[in-house]
Write a structure and sequence with these properties.
This protein is α/β, with parallel strands linked by helices. The protein has 4 domains: 89 residues, Orthogonal Bundle (434 Repressor (Amino-terminal Domain)); 151 residues, 3-Layer(aba) Sandwich (Rossmann fold); 62 residues; 250 residues, no CATH class. The protein is built from 25 helices and 11 strands. The protein has a 5-stranded parallel beta sheet, sandwiched between helices. Strands 6-7 form a two-stranded antiparallel ribbon. Helix 2 crosses helix 4 and helix 13 crosses helix 14. The longest helix is centred in the last third of the chain and has 26 residues. The N and C termini lie far apart (73 Å). The N terminus and C terminus are likely disordered. Bound molecules: adenosine-5'-triphosphate and magnesium ion (MG). Adenosine-5'-triphosphate binds next to helix 9 and helix 15. The site of magnesium ion has 5 residues, from helix 9.
């Protein structure tokens, strides 16, 4: 019980708050969007607790914000004292609570693994600004859903508590919480002020006044503020302290490019060894070790994404009869891998969905269609063909997805989906787009590649051929202007993986599940030669998974033979059609510098 407050039931609390708000039961019910009976049953104590959703709605209708709203929801669910809500609202919180509120970090993870380079960067930057002084230090920690932003920020904050003795605050801004809207900055400020011990009566109305009050309250102090899951710079900017000495860590799934003076730490997928170590630690079973091949395979199938690894580990922990090898095999064979990656009511797909929900309708359509791309990375031209739009619109769309960490940009103007995000996009396309729509998108893409490959092929060729490559023919998409051999080669080099993936798609066997566990490549279509075999995971000369340089596609290096690369085989194939030589000859000629294209190797490949 909170000191100084009488025992109070939730029913009594609700009656009191409603009366203070000047609402009848019906008005409260209407404002909250719940039934009058729900309100009546709660007020009469017939229902002693409420569902979380109902509680959140009631809190909103009663005008409760931030910390007060949180305590109200907890009280409605029987997890906090009703009197605590009034105490929080009035700022008359017992001394112990007030003291604890300025040490308000969530607990650090016992199993926190890796991220040493990022931690060192953060500490190094702090040490540097400590000597130069003069500014509030702001670090934006960004990355895709489930990459470990919150875990990292909290871990770093715990390491820094001694440097910020005047308080450590953690404020969830809920940009991606199911059933919640992003926190309004004015509510966020009220919450911070209450948490810092400012009485409710001393909190002014209005954003600007509250921001001023907050800056005044923390002026000259050394506080550490973690703003978790920010929606954008507009939400964050009013919460920043105004004087030097404090540190703000902002986590976000968005690139907060407009947040001035923020240093950025972008989190990537975990390196191979750290991913395996994390899985073994979280599974916490004697027979499961980081060095096991099955553990390595499992983490690969989890895209080296901590969220997915945590879910796989939790399944192993709670099913002692399961083996890592069997779980990996199940994941590899699953038609929808994401459907298997869940724990309790959490799932990787749900986390991705929250990012998808942020997109406009056009961006969502582009995202789904990108999931249809057979593999490799993609530029604006190919995206325009896939999406049936013009180049400028495609580039805008790609950039928007990049800003939301739904795409990585491994090279300028070239974008790539993380393996699991690709699966998600494809699953959404399967679910939401009619067959004809998907086939149309894939056909436009293949037409675009074929047309442009033919043009590049004609420019690259140095020796006479029996017949000229066809470069005419209508293609509805924008195509790059290839002015000469040099540009044609550059294009072919950049598109090599995509061309071969599309060649495989256009000529390969019908789709089968488990795209990322492709068997070793088979000899190429029409005798296409491969520059080299696909290295096995064990022999790959790198510690970070291939292609994870930005935010981490984990697709293996694309085979240059015609074995179906990851992602290719679950795509609905367009109608069978002849595919002519330029596809493959352009792709193989791009492997050497202007190597003469074999002129007679390629026949037509009927799909
Ligand atoms: N370095 C790590 N060591 C141990 N566990 C980790 C690490 N990084 C992340 N995790 C775990 O992975 C899961 C996802 O991490 P976290 O919630 O921090 O991701 P996030 O990037 O903040 O996701 P979101 O975008 O949804 O907010 C959590 O269960 C977290 O505990
Ligand atoms: Mg988070």
């Amino acid at each position: 019980m909170v000191a100084g407050q009488p025992e109070m039931s939730f029913a009594g609390l609700l009656r009191q708050l409603r009366a203070e708000a000047g609402l009848t039961q019906e008005e409260l019910a209407e404002a909250a969007g719940v039934s009058p009976r729900s309100v009546s049953n709660l007020e009469r104590g017939i229902n002693r607790t409420a569902h979380k959703d109902t509680a959140v709605l009631l809190a909103g209708a009663l005008g409760l914000a931030g910390r007060v709203s949180e305590v109200f929801v907890a009280a409605a669910r029987g997890r906090a004292l009703a009197a605590g809500v009034l105490a929080a609202r009035d700022g008359a919180v017992a001394g112990a609570f007030a003291a604890a509120a300025t040490r308000a970090l969530p607990r650090d993870l016992a199993a926190f693994t890796g991220r040493q380079a990022e931690l060192a960067r953060l500490m190094g930057a702090l040490a540097e600004t400590a000597t130069s002084g003069g500014v509030v230090r702001i670090h934006a920690i960004d990355g895709m859903a489930g990459i470990g932003k919150t875990a990292f920020a909290v871990h770093a904050a715990h390491r820094l508590t001694a440097t910020f003795p005047d308080g450590q605050f953690f404020l969830p801004l809920h940009a991606h919480t199911a059933g919640q809207r992003p926190v309004d900055p004015a509510d966020a400020l009220a919450s911070l002020l209450l948490t810092a011990g400012v009485p409710a009566a001393a909190i002014p109305p209005g954003l600007a006044a509250r921001a001023g009050r907050w800056r005044d309250h923390v002026a000259g102090k050394k506080i550490l503020l973690v703003l978790d899951d920010a929606a954008g710079h507009e939400q964050v900017a009013p919460l920043l302290p105004g004087t030097a000495g404090s540190l703000v860590l902002v986590t976000s799934r968005r690139r907060l490019t407009a947040l001035q003076d923020a240093a950025v730490i972008s989190l990537d997928t975990l390196p191979v060894e750290e991913a395996a170590a994390l899985l073994a630690r979280l599974a916490a079973r004697p027979g499961i070790r980081a060095g096991d091949a099955a553990v390595g395979e499992l983490t690969r199938l989890c895209g080296y994404l901590p969220l997915a690894i945590g879910m796989a580990a939790s399944q192993l922990r709670h099913h002692p009869a399961w083996t890592a090898a069997r779980l990996a095999a199940d994941l590899a064979a699953a038609r929808d891998r994401l459907a298997l990656l869940h724990a309790e009511n959490l799932s990787v797909a749900a986390a991705f969905n929250m990012s998808y929900a942020d997109l406009t309708g056009e961006q969502q359509r582009l995202f789904r269609r990108l999931g249809l791309h057979p593999g490799g990375d993609i530029d604006g031209y190919a995206a325009a063909a896939l999406d049936g739009t013009d180049l400028a619109a495609a580039r805008r769309g790609l950039e928007a997805l990049y800003d939301q960490y739904l795409l990585a940009e491994p090279a300028q103007g070239r974008y790539r989906l993380h393996d699991l995000i690709r699966e998600h996009a494809r699953a959404l396309a399967d679910r939401l787009d009619p067959d004809g729509d998907r086939d149309g998108a894939t056909t436009r893409l293949l037409d675009y590649y074929q047309h442009t490959a033919a043009r590049a092929d004609a420019l690259i060729a140095r020796q006479a051929r029996p017949g000229p490559a066809r470069v005419d023919g209508a293609v509805s998409a924008a195509v790059p202007a290839l002015a000469g051999q040099e540009q044609a080669l550059a294009w072919a080099r950049a598109e090599r993986a995509s061309l071969l993936a599309c060649l495989d798609h256009a000529t390969g066997p019908a789709s089968t599940p488990g795209s990322s566990l492709s068997p070793p490549p088979s000899p190429g279509c029409c005798g296409a030669t491969a520059p080299g075999p696909r290295p096995s995971p064990a022999t790959r000369p790198r510690s970070r998974p291939h292609g994870t340089s930005a935010t981490g596609s984990v697709r293996p290096a694309p085979s240059t033979t015609s074995g179906p690369p990851g992602g290719c085989r679950t795509i609905t194939r367009p109608r069978p059609r002849p595919w002519s030589r330029p596809w493959a000859s352009t792709a193989t000629s791009a492997t050497g510098s202007a190597r003469p294209t074999p002129s007679t190797t390629w026949g037509s490949c009927d799909g």
